Request: fold
Amino acid sequence: MHYDIAIIGTGAGGGTLLHALAGRGKRILVLERGDYVPREKANWNTRAVNVEGRYQTKETWRDREGRPLHPHTNYYVGGNTKFYGAALFRLRREDFGEIKHWGGISPAWPIEYEDLEPYYTAAERLYHVHGERGADPTDPPASAPYPHPPVSHEPRIQRLHDDWARLGLRPFHVPLGIMLDEADPRGSRCIRCETCDGHPCLVGAKSDAQVVCVDPALRDPNVTLLTNAHVTKLETGASGREVTRLVVKRGDATETYSADVVVVSAGAINSAALLLRSASDRHPRGLANGSDMVGRHYMGHVNSVLMAISRCPNPTVFQKTLGLNDFYFGSHDWEYPMGHVSFVGKLDADTLRGGAPAIAPGWSLDLMAKHSMDFWLTSEDLPDPDNRVTLDRDGNIVLAYRPNNETAHERLTAKLEQLMKQQTKCGVHGHECHEGLFSRNLFLGQRIPLAGVAHQNGTARFGHDPRASVLDVNCRAHEVDNLYVVDASFFPSSAAVNPALTIMANALRVADHLKSRLGI
Ligand SMILES: Cc1cc2nc3c(=O)[nH]c(=O)nc-3n(C[C@H](O)[C@H](O)[C@H](O)COP(=O)(O)OP(=O)(O)OC[C@H]3O[C@@H](n4cnc5c(N)ncnc54)[C@H](O)[C@@H]3O)c2cc1C
Ligand code: SF4
Reply:
């Protein structure tokens, strides 16, 4: 079957692009290797989701040493946005330029913040972002206010906010893509529950790519979505300049399709793997890989979860409302960027049990969870050509990665510890309320391990120079005229805020390019 456009993957990139191109008379084929997330009570069960990994892929990848790797990633309609925490940040304006880090250089992007700004504004509208402009000192300029007011802090988090503000810091409301209407609690689609970050939303109130983009796009009779449709190879014609066939595995059957324009959006790791698997006589190192850049510069952020355990309980239900970027670009005592501080969803005893945490003496897991504030720390991961996706002899994914810029992350962690020790607001215990910080030790020490590929990006970077990048500025492959990539692969640097809004905004930008290419 021949289509005008084929889109592979329905996550932040593919889903958003589909939404922008649907309804314009073009026949669009969408190929998604997963199915719909089943709607069931287990969606909101922390044991099923966090401990048993009910919705995670059961695929096995390998690390650099050949050890098995069980990636924490999800194959469903909507991609990883079904599970994300919906913290929807713009990159900082400076992130588009070159930045010197302790661990090396974060390279400049081939576009400027201003090129993406209108698309950020459009993506914030599309994904119902709730936020407050200007409170975050690193916020880039914006052409419009957030479409919805910020999500309020619960009392324990508000107390932390006030304490930090008293210390001269500028904490802010994290911009969130949830359909919460605090002015009308009975009418609000979102019920503000404790199982948001990492879980699918049982009531369809999270702004994920399925709910916000794919479902509405399917009202167009020209859009065909095939689920459980795993694209295994892209083939070119004799010139090598055009993808002419998509090979798709559906159950035991192999099917083939073709399209005038082919958009790969399978997530940064799977997109690189697909291009590498599509090697041919014309593209011996992998499709569009004359530069040998496909799969290289894998970045995943330097992330950790840190539990701050205090004497006061933390009865917060929806914890992910507060952020701190005061150390994003450095501080008076350290000139290099450190990164971003915010929260994960409230941890409970089941989740801690699954993560084999360091138990504080005298505390049970349940007590720890009831008294902890659970921070999420992100520092920039710098692009290293040796951190890369390759394939083993059987075509399975190998992810080789050596961490970098770790000193920045250690500095950020130390800053947070210092801040927590200066807490004064607790009327009962004073500053002793925070008697210690305990790492969650989820997997390895405090850090999120290699299997935590939630923020994967960078494996098919865009740029002006075909020798040093895979994609041109419109995210079209330098070497293949009808091939585009719109997932997180295009990032030349990872910045230190969550990536999804930038993927969405860029997909809208590429959609505008495709509209003019196709005359629609
Ligand atoms: C638990 C969790 C929390 C997160 N929280 C946040 C957050 O708060 N804020 C934020 O900005 N980001 C967050 N992220 C990251 C965010 O979800 C991703 O950055 C984003 O979804 C990536 O978009 P993408 O289009 O690159 O890929 P994905 O969303 O992963 O989409 C890729 C799609 O391609 C499909 N696919 C893969 N291979 C093939 C193939 N060969 N054939 C057909 N289909 C294929 C997959 O099934 C999937 O649907 C979180 C992620 C996780 C897992
Ligand atoms: S109801 Fe609201 S808080 Fe709960 S999962 Fe859905 S979007 Fe998240």
